Amino acid sequence: MRKKKEAEGKKPERKLELKFRKKMNREMAAVTYIFMLLFVFMAGYVIWFLSGDTDRILNNPYNKRQELLAERVTKGNILSDKGKVLAKTVTDKNGNEKRQYPFDGLFAHVVGRVTHGTTGLEASESYTMLTSGVPPLAGLLNELKGEKNPGNNIVTTLNVKLSQIASDALGSYRGAVVAMEPETGKIVAMVSKPTYNPNTIDVMWDKLIQEGGDDDPDRSVLLNRATQGVYPPGSTFKLYTLLEYIRENEQYENFRYKCTGKIGRGKDAINCYGNEVHGKLDLSRAFAESCNAAFAQIGTELNASKWSKLCHSFYYNRTLSVEKLEQKASSFAIKEGEATGDIMQVAIGQGSTLTTPLQNIFLVSAAVNDGTLMKPYVVDRVEDANGNTVQQRKPAAVSTPLSEEEVKLLKQYMREAVQSGTATALNTGRYQAGGKTGSAQFKEGSSDSHAWFVGFAQKSGKSLAVSIVVEGAGTGSAYAVPIAKKLFDEYFE
């Protein structure tokens, strides 16, 4: 009886014990789950950091690790595609280091600078150049002797001769030139003018940051016009209008238009350049002759949503990163229900449509490369101080936005513009060229225009695409096409 009472007395204690254990188990489980979530979060962050954000953090000029590396490593060189030095570190007799730029301002916007703000490749590849490829033992011996180890070198895709030709051809005009290999995405020339000399930037800084008026030849000299300059594309945009019309109309070959020199009335009237009357045109002749009236009419017949989607596929309203160079996005903002006059302006590359010279090369490049757009790049590889390759950049496809038939047609239409249209100066037996000229008005009520050319040349399986803008010069035929010809002549020499 007594044992029975003792057993009955222990039941509440067991219940309390079980209850306590359950509570402890729940708390332990909760703690375990929290730690598991933290582990997953940290693992995810490490993967994200290693796969996509490493360069941004390591090359951030505020990263103190770079300062520590600079105490032990002499920053490496930036080289051209042929190994010519574009930027290097020189040390005076007192051991003071300074970056030097042998080509003065020719590569200032791409290579960048290290004073008054670090820019260009000097910023995006800084950590890489402060990393030494010297074998660990040799590096340790150098440090024990109080000597710095040499940093890795950046070998770019930039060609000195092509870059110099582009700069000389632009002359005293403001503008930009981008030349790219369509099959790889290698940018062989990226020139922006006016430029500045990073070797003398300390002396010139106050003048460089003064914002002059429209007539100031050095206005916005620090701006890389190739990636940050946004311009109305003018008639070069007719490539997009043409392509969308072909996509929406199976019977595009039946297009006919009679040009009287203008379309529309009053303030919405659009004139052909120089009030030229083109007469009866099919689609090919309308493109080759760059008839504004015909393409304004075509624009009113297009589906705005599909048109916008096409432009988006070629990086309108977004950017395609190139070696972390500062960029601005091109813009295309036409929507269903827009006023007819606004639609007609957009169709000929005026109105609200804006583009950068870099973005304006994408459609041509994809057309030349069988419909595939390659990611543009300016860093080809990383080498150690002895010339051994540490890391090799591989060409990468971004997308294939064009069909085989569209490629064939676009190249055919661009060839027609060279053979019998507005770019006949490129009609030479040395190579096969095609493209589109443009004259983009940029002041309301003024006939002043930016001169544009986007196009390509091919010979023996080798190709080069170019995008050229000459600010306020006039027609693309007179000012941009001659620059393209000089580049093509050199490239296919």
Give a description of the structure:
- The chain contains 18 helices and 19 strands.
- It is of the alpha+beta class and 493 residues long.
- Strand 17 (432-441) and strand 18 form a beta hairpin.
- Helix 7 (160-170) runs antiparallel to helix 18 and helix 12 crosses helix 14.
- The model has no long low-confidence stretch (mean pLDDT 89).
List low-confidence stretches. Answer: none
The total of helices stands at 18
Any idea what the radius of gyration is? 30 Å
Which shape, going by the Cα principal axes?
Answer: globular
How many angstroms separate the termini?
Answer: 114 Å
Number of strands: 19
- Classify the secondary structure makeup into a structural class: alpha+beta
Defining traits:
six-stranded mixed sheet; about 500 residues; globular
Short description, anyone?
The chain is α+β, with helices and mostly antiparallel strands. 39% of the residues lie in helices and 18% in strands.
Task: Give the helix/strand layout.
Layout: H1 2-58, H2 64-70, E1 73-74, E2 78-79, E3 85-91, E4 97-100, H3 108-111, H4 120-124, H5 126-129, H6 136-144, E5 149-150, E6 153-156, H7 160-170, E7 175-180, E8 187-193, H8 201-208, H9 225-228, H10 238-248, E9 257-259, E10 262-263, E11 270-271, E12 279-281, H11 283-288, H12 292-300, H13 304-313, H14 340-347, H15 362-368, E13 373-374, E14 379-383, E15 389-392, E16 397-399, H16 404-420, E17 432-441, E18 449-459, E19 462-470, H17 476-479, H18 481-491
Parallel strand pairs: 1-5, 2-6
Antiparallel strand pairs: 2-3, 3-4, 6-14, 7-8, 7-19, 9-12, 10-11, 13-16, 14-15, 17-18, 18-19
